[in-house]
Amino acid sequence: MAITKLYIVYYSLYGHVDTMAREVHRGAATVEGVEATLWRVPEMLSDLILEKLKAPSKPNDIPEIRPEQLVEADGLLFGFPSRFGMMPSQLKAFFDATSGLWASQALAGKPAGIFWSTGFYGGGQELSALTAITQLAHHGMLFVPLGYTFGSGMFEIGEVKGGSAYGAGTFAGDGSRQPTELELQQAFYQGKYLAEITKRLKS
């Protein structure tokens, strides 16, 4: 059986997206024949700025990815914290560096998904996904939303919950809030869901 490669590429400043990414990875890894790999995009902020922001150290078990490595994957999932309703400059700079891949349309036809973190309800739970889709569209990638396939968890209104039909999400609040069990379940589901679709498309 040919191995299907799924790359989970993300940026995380305070760790919320890192937590979500690891759960996405766990879900993807449950699909037989799929090799899921976690990657970090390079940090642009200096150590001094990161220290002033009180950002934790980057995890040393997740390697940084180069733009040209994206072509190795059969499917891609991108995760990021929202900045004013959009992806942060770190991930945008990474996409800006993919112009060579864009010119050759090397990523065209690859299924791709998005997951995210925002501060509060007005922080871009849906807008962050919508503005990120433009990056996928210009590369010709196939955006794979969750729709309402997650089931009853999509209709939960008894607790604060991030995410939408576009993908899994979480709220960071003032930074102290961590992804809830339900948000992590949706992240796990998204990883599994995209892995299954990627595998089907490859075969």
UniProtKB/TrEMBL annotation:
Reaction(s) this enzyme catalyzes, per UniProt: a quinone + NADPH + H(+) = a quinol + NADP(+); a quinone + NADH + H(+) = a quinol + NAD(+)
First-level EC class: oxidoreductase
Obligatory cofactor(s): FMN
Signal peptide range in chain numbering: none
The EC number(s) this enzyme carries: 1.6.5.2
Domain Flavodoxin-like: 6-194
Gene Ontology molecular function, alphabetical: NAD(P)H dehydrogenase (quinone) activity
Coiled-coil regions listed in the entry: none
Origin: domain of life: Eukaryota
PANTHER family: FLAVODOXIN-RELATED PROTEIN WRBA-RELATED, NAD(P)H DEHYDROGENASE (QUINONE) FQR1-LIKE 3-RELATED
Family the UniProt entry places it in: Belongs to the WrbA family.
Name assigned to this protein: NAD(P)H dehydrogenase (quinone)
Source organism: Flemingia macrophylla
